Amino acid sequence: MSLGGYAGRVGHVDLTSRTVDYRPIPEEWARKYVGGRGLGVRYVYEAGPAIDPLSPENPLCFMNGPLTGSEATMSGRLAVVTKSPLTGTVTDSHQGGWTAARLRWAGFDALIFTGRANGPVYAVVENGKVEIRDASDLWGKGAHETIQILRERHGGDDISVEAIGQAGENLVKFSAWMNENDRAAGRGGTGCVGGSKNLKAIVIKAARNYPRAANRDEWKEAHRAALGKIMDESTITSPRKGGLSLYGTNMLMNVSNTIGALGARNSQETHFDNAEKLSGEYVKETILIHDPTCHACPVACKKEVEVTDGPYKVKMESVEYEPAWSLGANCGNDDINSVAFMIDMTNDLGLDAIEIGQALSAMMEATQREYIPASEGLAWGARDDMIETIREVAFRRGKGARLADGIDPFVKSLGHPELAMTVKGQATPAYDPRGLKGMGLGYATSNRGACHLRGYSPASELGVIGLKTDPLAWEGKGELLKLLQDIHAFSDSLDLCKFSAFAEGPEEYAEQYRVMVGLDKFDMNDALTTGERIYNLERHYNNQAGFREGSDYLPRRFTDEPSNSQGSMGQVCELDKMLIEYYDVRGWKDGVVPDEKLRELAVL
Ligand code: SF4
Q1: Is residue 189 located within the same domain as residue 45?
Q2: Which of 85, 296, 310, 386 sits between 20 and 30 A of 565, alpha carbons compared?
Q3: Residue 323: inside a domain, yes or no?
């Protein structure tokens, strides 16, 4: 390949035959889809959108980007890309830590697993080779113990381990891949796909070995300019000064609550009285012990905590905003110690922390409304019952078994689909779209089911970035979401941490990419066009998989039931109006990409 920056090697692992084929990325794909999310989707597309997600043919792709493992700030993200067993869409889920960097240092742009081993296996990646080993002794163990055993077995400091927990083994449809114990590729059920292939873990051994930019003279300046944005004291990323660095993502708990955008009790309310006791500020005052970070990141947004007294003793990282909300306010639980305990347990079992909290809250509302008897349900804030049910979900037993295939099948079995706070089968995250309307459009039009990260509109609606918008206005949100979705599709393909977008923009992304791979010209407009191409490829895949007109929707609670709290009182999310504007700027026909748009963007 003539592009610089890449390792030039993808390990194609057939688990059925336990053989590995090493090939470079097709150059045309690298130029059009970059890496990480975009390139992963292109590999998944190749297997065909009609594929059964749990069939051996569904590719499970662990993807780096061309900046991964370099000096580029926040360049330690790994994208796990596959067809989702939860949603039936293509999905990508990203995790931090050092696994992505180490995979790059070991000489790989990606690992792509197909087939199904005839028994439990794990992969060992070292010196440009992949070996498949027996994992019979690891099957049945949690992610934490699996990671510890494999670290001891394969030794040394220069090691990262990815693992699924029991949830993935038991094909729970929202199970995750974990690394560094608590860094999750949580969304979309990528761990379930691993379980279906009998793939328990991946060990990667490699010492630090920064990839060198193709244009070395210009790299220093591109890196310095991007780092300068992250370090700027006026941004929330500013180390030890900005909100993200001081409190982690959970700086958002009090903010969302104040503006009436914090869903509580399965989003029956838009405010939670005791949210302050779940907040990043409260965590910092009470149980915070350390601020860990990821490869090449001075922000250190991870928040390690320790609970030393009471029934919920735990030491773990990290109490993030999403799980603190999903297992806290969303379930009527105001006890941060129990939330930390449950997040740790969720990580060990290998479950998506957003999805499990939303599944529990759907069961709680069903119990409240007497759609199921109390003996088969859950009460709001019943912490110890929540803990027991989470474990039951991972092992598909007891009442938890009813939640293991996702929220939609559970509430449909009750005859009450209105209890599902989901889009395309995936649970909505921690932003109530009656108080942050752009997020409603983002949930509805996300290509992987409800997602806050496709085009993170609160960055604009809460005034974090220069492009500021009114959180309660629907006008202009179609254009805003398209822009943000395209930017994030590009940065997810580099693959940089989401939070870089609080300080950097498409100019910095484009310039770092240009000098790393060695192009004469690639500017912010090229970055936006590339992001748009990736977004349209995902949409085209989903269209072919059966998601057509009417597939971009919201739970009716958000569009029909007015907000009942200060900040957003009386508001609903005007999705229909925003969709008209959005489809217009996208050039789509009711959610379907026309052939002329595919040709215009050179999608295929
Ligand atoms: S901002 Fe947080 S999640 Fe992102 S790279 Fe830094 S420490 Fe990791």
Answers
A1: yes
A2: 386
A3: yes
Ligand 1 center to 84 CA (angstroms): 25
Which of 396, 427, 458 lies at the terminal end of a domain, its last residue? 427
Residue 443 in 3-state DSSP? helix
- Atom nearest to 248 CA in ligand 1: 2
Q: pLDDT tens, 232-254?
A: 999 999 999 999 999 999 999 99
The pLDDT of residue 157: 86
Residue 546, judged by CB atoms within 10 A of its CB (0-12, 13-18, 19+), counts as exposed
Nearest to 264 by CA among 327, 346, 341: 327
Q: State the pLDDT confidence band at 572, using cuts at 50, 70 and 90.
A: very high
> What's the domain range around 513?
437-553+574-600
For residue 169, the CA-to-ligand 1 centroid distance in Å is 29
Q: How far is the CA of 201 from the centre of ligand 1 (A)?
A: 23
Ligand 1 pocket (Cβ < 6 Å) reads 74, 76, 96, 293-294, 297, 299-302, 497, 499
Q: Does the pLDDT value for residue 419 go beyond 80?
A: yes
Q: Ligand 1 centroid vs 363 CA: distance in angstroms?
A: 33
Residue located nearest, by CA, to atom 6 of ligand 1: 297
Ligand 1 centroid to residue 511 C-alpha, Å: 21
The protein residue with its alpha carbon nearest to ligand 1, atom 8, reads 294
Between the CA of 243 and the centroid of ligand 1 the distance, in Å, is: 13
- Written as six digits, the tokens of 524 are 């912010």
pLDDT at 1: 83
| Domain tally, the chain | 3
Integer-rounded Cα radius of gyration of the chain = 22
Structure token digits, residue 236: 């929330």
Q: What is the mean pLDDT of residues 286-305?
A: 97
Note the pLDDT tens digit of each residue in 195-211: 999 999 999 999 999 99
User: Which CATH number does the domain housing residue 472 bear?
Assistant: 1.10.599.10
User: To test ligand 1's pocket by mutation, which of 94, 249, 299, 320 has the most ligand atoms within 8 angstroms of CB?
Assistant: 299
Q: Looking at the CA of residue 298, tell me the nearest atom of ligand 1.
A: 6
pTM, two decimal places: 0.98
Domain boundary among 409, 427, 445: 427
H-helix or E-strand spanning residue 442: helix 437-445
If one residue of 302, 304, 492, 495 were mutated to test the ligand 1 pocket, choosing by the most ligand atoms within 8 A of its CB, it would be 302
- Name the residue at shortest CA distance from atom 4 of ligand 1: 497
How many helices (H) and strands (E) would you count in the chain?
23, 17
Q: Show Cβ contacts of residue 252 under 8 Å, excluding neighbours closer than 6 positions.
A: 280, 321, 430, 458
| Residue 380 belongs to some domain of the structure | yes
Backbone angles phi, psi at 183, to 5 degrees: -95, 115
Give which of 497, 431, 429, 422 is closest to 460, Cα–Cα.
431
Neighbours of 258 (CB within 10 A): 15
Q: CA-CA distance, 268 to 456, in Å (whole number)? A: 23
Contacts of 382 (CB under 8 A, 6+ apart): none
Distance 537 CA to ligand 1 centre (A): 28
Backbone angles phi, psi at 498, to 5 degrees: -50, -40
